[in-house]
Every structure is written in C-alpha cells, then in structure tokens.
Amino acid sequence: MSEITYPPGCRPISDDLGADELIRRLKTLAHTLQAMGQDEGAYQQYIPLAIHLADDQFLNHPSRDVQLLIACCIADVLRVYAPEAPYKDSDQVKTIFLFLITQLSGLKDPKDAAFKRYFYLLENLAYVKSFNMCFELEDCQEIFCALFHLMFKIVNDEHSGRVKSFMLDVLSPLITESDMVSNELLDIVLMNVVEPNKTQRKNAYLLAKELIIKTSDTLEPYIQSFFNHVLILGKDVKNIQICGKVYDLIYELNHICPQVLEAVLPQLECKLKSASESERLGAVALLARMFSEKDSQLAKQHTTLWCAFLGRFNDISVAIRTKCVQYSMHFLLNHPDLRKDITDTLKLRQHDGDENVRYEVVMAIVTTARRDFQVVSDSEDLLEFVKERTLDKKFKIRKEAMSGLAMIYRKHLNDPDVPNATKKAVTWIKDKILHGYYMAGMEDRLLVERLLNTCLVPYQLSTSERMRKLYHLLGTVDEHATKAFMELQRNQLCVRKLVLEWLELHHRSVSADIQKELAIKVQALSRCLPEPVKAHEFLTKFSGHLRRDSALLDSMEMVARPSVSCQECSDATAVVLKKLGQPVMTNLYYNTVKMLLERVSSVMVDHEAIHILIGYVEDCLRGGNTLEEVGLHPATAGDRGLKLLVMLSCVFPSHFHHADVIEQLLELLHLEDENIAPLVLSVFTFLGKYKCLYDQFPNLMERLAPICKDLAETGTPKQAKGAIRCIYINMPELHDALFPAILETIKSNLCPESPHYRTAIVTLGHIAFNVPDRCKVQIKNIVSRKIVKELLVKESRDNQINHDDNEPWCSEDDLPEETRCKVEGLKAMARWLLGLKQDTASAQKTFRMLNAFILHKGDLLQYGRLLRAEMSWLRLAAGCAMLKVCEQKGVGDQYTAEQFYNLSQLMVDEVKQVRELFAAKLHKGLGRGLPNKCLPLDFMGYYALAGRETESKIRNVIRNYMLTDINRRRDYVKTLTMNTGQVDKAFNQLPHILPDYMLVFAIPILAHDPALSRWDDVHDLTRARQCLWFILEPLVTKTEYFSYGFYKSLIERMKNHKDAINPDDDAMNYHGDEFVMDSRMYISPIIRYIIMAHNGKHSRCSGKNFTKKYQYNF
Fold it and tell me: What is the pLDDT of residues 638-659, one digit of tens each?
C-alpha cells in the first residue's frame, strides 16, 4: 500500500474499508482526478494508483456506488493518460472496458440519483474516445458489440439530446476509425432500423439512423458486401438476423442514407427476374414502396430497374400482379410523371384472368379518386377502366366499380367546376349506373337502388335541390337508363305493396291460416333480397319481432305507407334500424332488414317534391331560368320533365292527389305545344287508376272535362287517345254526357276531307275499347262502313308504282296521310274487337282481313299502287293488330292455324324494321299479365324463326326477348308451385305456361315455313337446326330445369299428331311407324340429335355428319 502514491488530500483505498468509508475516499479521489488535466508525463507517480483502481476487488465490489466511482476514476485515468493508458495487459484492458460498459447501463434511468455520475462517465469516455484502446485487442469486436447492444437497449425518451449525442460520440469512432466492421456489429446496428424495432424501440431506431448517417462512408462497403452476399450469391450470413429482413433493410436505408444503396439497387433487377416467386414478390413489394413514395426520384435515377418493375405487372404469379396493382394508387397520387406508365399497365390488368387482380385495379382507381379526385378526373382512361368493370362477371368487382363511379358523379354534383374529363364522364356515369339494373343478379339491383338514393339523387339534399338533381338525371340519361329507372321504381312499388300486405297480417289474431299467409308473404319477400334462404330466416325472425313490438310495427308501416313524406320515411327507417342491434357486418339480421328497408323506403319524392318538380317542368316549358339551373337542353327539357312526371304518377300517385298539384297540371294543358297534353293526360290517367279524381276533386274535373272533349274531337291523335282514357278513368259520372257527344262529332270527321280524320279514327277506336257497351250498334256500323269500306279496302290512287324506285321503309311521319289513317284504322279495329271480348263472328271476319294484309305483303287489293314503305307499315300494323287481339280470350281465340302460320312470316319479313318491331310487339304481348292477359304460349314458337335472322343486332335483341319471356314464365311457375294449396291447379296450367312447350308450336311453324321447303337438302336441314337450336339453347343448356326424359316424351307424343291444316295429306303427316317425305319427319330427328348431344349421348357427332346422315336415311 505504501508503494501507491495518492494525490494530495486523497486517502488510501482498499477493500478492507467499510463501504461508506470507501465511498467517501473514492469521491475525494474522483473529484481530484476530475480536476487533473492532460499533461504528458506529469502524473507518472500515479500509475500504480491507476493499476490499483482496476483491481478485481474494486471492479467486483458489491456496492453499486463503489463500482460507479471506480468507473469514473478509471475514465479520468484514461483521459489524463491519453493516448497512452497505464493499462498494458490485454486481458486487463478487456476486463476494464467490459466493466465500463456494465456501468454505462446506469444511464437507462435519468431520474436515478447517481445519473449525473453515469452521465459524467459517458461524457468522459466520449471526449477522449477511450474505447479506441480496444482496437489493439484481438476480441475488440466482442467489446464493441456489447457496447452497441447496451446503448441501443438503454436509450429512451427521457434522455436529453446531450445524452444521445454523447452516445453517438462513443459509438461512431468505433466504426469510422476501425480497420474493419464485423458482421455481428453491423447486424446490431441494422436490426434497429427495421421492424419491429423501428416501431417498438423508436429511440434505438433514431440512434441507429444517426449513427448510419454519420458513419455512412465507412459503412458503405460493408453494407454493399452484405447485399452482394445475400442478393447476388443468395446466401445467408451465419448468425446474422438481418438476412431475413433484407428487403425491409433496403427500404429503410433508402430513407436514411440512400447513397449507400447506389450500387445495391441495380442488383434487385435479378431478383425481379428470379425463378422463385417468393423472391420476385419480395423485390416487387420493396420496389413498389420505394418507387411510389412521395418525392421519390428512383424511377428517374434507375430507369432500367423501373422498366423491369413494370414488367412484373404481367407476372405469371397472381400474388405479384396483385401486389403491383395495389401500389398503383400511390403512383397515381404521388407521381404525375409516372401516371402514363401506370395507366398503360392497368389497361392490361383490368382484363386480368384473376378476379382479385381486376378487383384491385378498380379499388386502386376508386381509392385514388377518394383521396385526390383531381387525379382520376383528369384521366379519361382511368374512368374508362372503371366503366368496363361495371360489366365484370364478379359482383364484388361490379359493386366497387359502380360505387366508385357513383362517388365521382356525386362529387361532380357538389362541385360543377371540374376538369373536362370528368364533365365528359358524368355524361355516361349516370347511364352506366342505371344500366346496372339490367343485370340478372338481385345484388346488382339493390346496389343500383342504393346508389340512386345516395349518389345520383342524394336523399340528404333539400327538397328543391333534390328535385333539381332528379330532373337533371332523368333529363340527360339515355333511353335504356330511363327504362331502368322506371323498372326500378316499379319493382320498389311492388315490394312496398308486398310489405304492406305482410304488415297488415301482423294486426290479425294468430291462427293457422294467418301463419300460412305470413309464411307465403315471407317467402315472396325473401325472393326480393339476395340469398333468399338466409333472407327467409331473418325475415321470419323480424316477423316475430314485429308481433312483440308494436312501435316497431308502426314504424315499418310508416316507411311503407304510400303517402309518407321523405323526412317521415327517413326518421321511421332510423327508428327501425335502432331496434335491430349493432350495425356491424356480422349482424346479418340487421343487414337483411336494412336491405328490405332500402327497397321499400321512399326518400326521393313526396307531395312537396312533386309540387316543386312540376314548377321546374313548367318553367322549362316556358323557357325559364330553370333550364340553365338544372343543366338541360332547351329542346328536350320539357318533354323529359313531363315523361318524368308520368313515371312518378305511376309509382307515387298518392303524392299527386292534392289540389295544388292537380291545379298545376291543369295549367300545363293551356300551353301551346301539342306534345304536352298527351303526357299530362297520361299523368291524370295513372292518378285515376289509383283513386278516381272526380271523387276527390269534382270541381277540378269539371274544368278538365271540356278540355278532354275538345282534344278528343279536334286534337292530335295522341291527344285524343289520352283524352278518352282520362275521361274513362277519372269521370265516370260524365260518361253519359261526354262519349255520345264526342261520337257524334267524330262521325262527321270520319272522312278523308276532314283535317281531323286521323284523330277521329283514333278516338273511335279508344271509345270502342273503353266503353264498348255504349252505342254498341252505332260503333259497329261506323267501323264497318267508315273504317273497313271507306278506308281499308278503298284505293284512291290511279297510277301503279314501280317498286324498284322506292325504299322499303320510312319513318311513320313520312308516310302519306292516307296510309297513316289506314294504320290507325287497323289499330282501331283491334281495339274495337278487344272491347267486344266475345263477338266471335266479328273476330273471324277481322282476322280474315288482317290475314289478307299480311298474305298480300300489305297491298290488300293488289293493285300495285302502294309504295314499298307503305306496304311494310300496313302489314306490320295488321300483324301487330292480330297479336293485340290474340291477347284477349274469346275474340283472340278465333284465328285459324293458317292465319297463325301466315302471321309468323313477319318474323322473317324482308324488311328488317318490320322484323324488329314485330318481335318487340310479340315480346310485349307475351310478357303482359301472365297467365291470362298475355299472348298464349303458342306464339313463343315464333321465336324459332329468329334462328334465320341475318342481322346480328336484331338476332341478339330477339334472343334477349326470348330469354326474358322464358325466365318470366319459369319464375311464375315457381311461384305457382310454391303455393301448396294449389298444386293440382298449378300442374294443370303448366302446359299453357311452361316455356319448354314452345317446342310443340315451333315445329309446325318451321314445317310450314316456305323458306324450308326442301327437307332433303343439306342447306335447309342446317338452317332448320339453327332455328331449333336458337330456342332450345336457353331451354336445355346451363339450366336446372332441363330434363332429357321430358323432351324425349314430348317428341314421341308429337309424332302421333296430324297437321291441322292438312290432316289427310300424307305429305304433312306420319303413317304409323313408316316415314313419308315429311318436313316434320326431318325436324324430329334434328331435335333428338340436339338434345342428345346436350345430354352427352352424341358428344362425338358433328353437324356435318348429322346433315349427311339425315339426308340419305329417308
């Protein structure tokens, strides 16, 4: 002890001293050493003391304070004697620095009473770079790793900037001044810049980040070497955790210090082209993040890598294509200069074979629009991509596309000052959304209904603003969208009526019959929602809820009440939903009832809205400011507005049944435009069908009556039609006074010289149809003399016409007036017959005349004095009149088989417009009022002739007509058979309703088709097969209804029947089992072949082999 020299004022220290005394002496010594400056050679006498301080007895002393003071003293010794420390033994040096590292752990708690001494220790070690002594040690990296690990572990939020700065000063020289940086040390640093440490240990991340920035020049070659080893060689470095997070590391380093990656990033191109999907996916995810980030310049700096990345949009892996598309949004938002490249890739991916990729394309564009509307608004291409996906085969994609477009349209409504691309897009967005109602799925229909009320005409708007949006919508959409809107409203009306009937049952006492009726209503309602089975379960539950909660029942009745206001409906809907539990996706009960509420709630129009809307329409008709405010074209605004009122009067008649609304409508009739009155009168007619207007507003109807009388006598044909219907529906008390007076007036007008000749014909037809029992004999005489003799069978021209010099078709307005009168005369005869209902003799005579028009191609007298276009119109009018009459039981049953076959020839008429219009009339007749008020099933056989249609557009239209008629009849059959009490009745009706029986009528129609006369000819056989397959395809393919046994039996039964026209003609019939040269004999094998091929029995037969076989077998 005597050999150790202590500084003045310091007393000796040893391990045999008590802890308190030792601490007092160490404090004095530490204070003295702290005051010493660096003076080379001045303190040689204290070297033994320095050695003594590093004895194990002090380094391992049980007192924490003793260890801290010893550490401070040693740190001062290292400072005073720097750069030559008195410690020479390498083991001792290692022990000392590991001891110092252990003491530095005290820095973790700045609130510790001894923190100042720990801070002094850190500052001292940093000031003279004490740890640099370890460079000469073989295992210096072990010491450095321990130090780095400790610093990253203890750094926290409570440390001041100075503490963190000194930590950095301690660590950075160990990298910058070292001859090498070990992988272990590099791993410790880099692991703190990636997840989860980046998030969970934010201070360690910031320290590592600053350290990398400060030592980047030194670290760069080591980092590059590491990436070369992992990326190029594909080998993991042993015991290095960061190897598993190499892509995350590149991403973080690019943010922290991008220059260290200048040589690394080009190496990623090989990963993009790797045979391993996981490697490509990792590289794609990394580069997508790096390229797409805001302010990133990587795409410009590494163009080759950017091009390689774009190539991954077409990767064979779905996951990789999906990942690329998911990042498209960030590119579109953050990099205007890259939008063209991204748009080009999305153009390909929107047609991707995988639905998830297509879905992500839509989501990328829609999400971009939500975050920055301007980006998508500026690009017509992006909007077009979404537009195309509204027709995707997957609903979830259609849903997002439609919702995205609707959101864009709604933003346009709120901000008219948008780019030209958006202005152009909104012209088709609303059409496209409404066109979605034509989709077969119930989900699509509910989606369109929701979007209509939330985006196209937002229900939250004020009434006046909402009506402006509705007027703008219906004033600018195309014809198909308008029809979809009307169909939507009608469907919702049907559901409302069904719900009201269902709710009414809940007021009755519970009984077996009531329970049965409730079950039927629930079954019907469940078919109005997606997934009917689940819907049935939750609607049954809701029915029980309604029974128990009278307030809930009252609210539901309020929602479905026809006269409810929009606000009342909205409030009642909210009350109902509050009683159904939490509005979460897992609450299926809530979501099912919510869907039902969306279908029945009326939040678009009410009495106030109708009053405002009529005001807007009137102002547009007068050329007022509303035209500009609503954004409509002056030439069409008034007409579109009136048609909108007609639609709304059909669906919401109760909102019109107010004196102020009726007054407004009467005012419209005083406007000069001749096109106004027919539409306004249609409104009155629909209102009268709901409730007779004369009963509610007799004074107003007294004012309307003379107007209708005048229009019926001297107005246009359309005005006359509307006037008669309005009088008939709304003024029953005035029938005796008005109809005879009108009839007397039109008798004098039923001559070609009268300017009101055509009007008189129309008026006569509608009076005969609506009130056939009034003046029955008088009307019959007028029809016989004035319509038949003086109009239809009278030829006024003297000169024959060369048919080669005129067109086969023209618009109806371009027809000569005489021919237009004949067309109306044919319609009037049909209406007269429909009114008579049971006059079979008149029906037979009329059918013979109509048949003559068709048989003679429209030229009844065959004088050759009619234009081809006139003949086309006349035979079309005759055919349509026959179809109309055939809808009515009684008079409609009087046509003969020959007339039936002759009428079918209009399906293959030489003029395409005749074919198109006749098919439309056929479809309309087949779909009207199943099962008793429509055309019989016989007429569905006409569709077989459309198999010969050469115009693809017309063929597709007719095919859609047929599919609609087939589905409508099958749905009706399903409804019929579900009513358990009427099963026998249902089965008896099936042959008259089931569309499969159309085959029974198609065969004789084809057999009597003049164009298929040579049944031993391959060409005719092929055409017959095309005709049959045209109707059989929707019946036998991809359908649960197909039954091979049914068709086989049907064909066998048809073989036993004779031709109705020529029952004794062997050329048209079978003789037992012997085949004669018979058209039907050939058709039956064709049908058998088609059906058996579908059933898999003739899977190897080709059409060529078929025609050869049946050409020679008979």
Answer: 999 999 999 999 999 999 999 9
